[in-house]
Amino acid sequence: MTDTESAEDSAPLTYDVVVLGAGPVGENVADRTRAAGLSTAVVENELVGGECSYWACMPSKALLRPVIARADARRVPGLRHLVQGPLDAAAVLAHRDYETSQWKDDGQVRWLESIGAVLHRGHGRLDGPRRVTVEGPDGTRQVLAARHAVAVCTGSRALLPGLPGLDRVRPWTSREATSAQAVPGRLVVIGGGVVAVEMATAWQALGSRVTVLVRGKGLLPRMEPFAGELVAEALTEAGVEVRTGTSAESVTRENGTVVVHTDAGDRVEADEILFATGRAPRTDDIGLDTIGLEPGSWLPVDDSLRVTGSEWLYAVGDVNHRALLTHQGKYQARIAGAAIAARAAGVPLLETDPWGAHAATADHAAVPQVVFTDPEAAAVGLSLAEAEQAGHRVRAVDVDIASAAGAGLYADGYRGRARMVVDLDEDILRGVTFVGPGVGELIHSASIAVAGRVPVSRLWHAVPSYPTISEVWLRLLEAFRDT
What we know:
Elements: E1 13-20, H1 24-35, E2 40-44, H2 50-55, H3 57-73, H4 89-99, H5 106-114, E3 118-121, E4 123-126, E5 131-135, E6 141-152, E7 156-158, H6 174-179, E8 186-190, H7 194-205, E9 209-213, H8 225-238, E10 241-243, E11 248-254, E12 257-262, E13 267-270, E14 272-275, E15 279-281, E16 313-315, H9 326-344, H10 362-365, E17 368-371, E18 376-381, H11 384-389, E19 394-400, H12 405-410, E20 417-423, E21 428-436, H13 443-451, H14 456-459, H15 472-482
Parallel strand pairs: 1-2, 1-6, 2-3, 6-16, 8-9, 8-14, 9-10
Antiparallel strand pairs: 4-5, 5-6, 7-15, 11-12, 12-13, 17-18, 18-21, 19-20, 20-21
């Protein structure tokens, strides 16, 4: 086929399901539909494995793990004197490269093939109902037809602000921040969310002098206020300069140096600049206009992840804007795969109750997240402010995590805080937040309590092992009983 021939000149290949995007979400949709016996094609224009495997979760945590391990070791008597030197940046970056498979997707492709899914390399675009046109790397085009469903799993991209001069400074986004091959001498980070604080933590520990400019009042604005406060305090102690209430007005690059002009009239210089200022859906060039939808928009869905108003189109993961987290996207993919398979089999009524196989209920009120800073911040469900805004009659219960017997054993001088938000009418937890070393491993217990709507009176009978940090659960319940 020549470049000038249309996609209609190529005989369509028909599958039961066509998946746009081979990140963790698309892979899991394919896995579930294949397990149900449906023929499934997956279309990917970049690396199979997606953002998480190569530019987000895996490389960022590979950068952060030695930072946190060193910080933990420094808090243990008899060990701290052995870990006082700098990190071996070259070794950390090499391990990061290993965890990303050197940005090669051979292993992920083999896995996709092992489940029986068919991979089509190229840019996929919707071409009317149940049709996808794939433009391959060589310019050839192939039409894919879906008997039952097309699942859009194309994820999101970094959103850059329209600052004067930005197009000329070669800014970092999360992709460059997690894949950089050298430590910048100075790094300025714009933003106060998860990407901003994690990358500030990593690059400062690797030897960069980091300045964080935050437009708002504090860090991690979607968590309880104390989470951002404790993380900001620790970043400052580590040598990061955190400026809140500060916006970048313009940026330039002068003789290789990035210069940021702030709204306060200050001038901040750095070797690199990272913008961690939000995400946008990767839906601008996937043919949404051919089915009457707005290109570049988030795609609203029901709890089976089917796009509102459609009988065949699904939007799974970041593109539906329900919870921009890999684990939530994979959860949605399991729900979507089950729903697609059930509808393909002619099941007249799907399980749409809160515990059904076809309803993504957890995305409404039980979304967990861990921020891998030092200290870690972990939360699930609603914050106090969110619960009150939703009209629930709630009470916040706060305790110092150091009151748990295991905290002092885990780290000398342990500093951390825990909060549970109790619904006083329903006797359940609406949300839980932990901040402190090692708390990322605590959050799943909270997720079970929140998602399962476990009565607080029953939580008394879930006895934490002694002496562990999990004893904080007992301290929280005691504080709730005694106040």
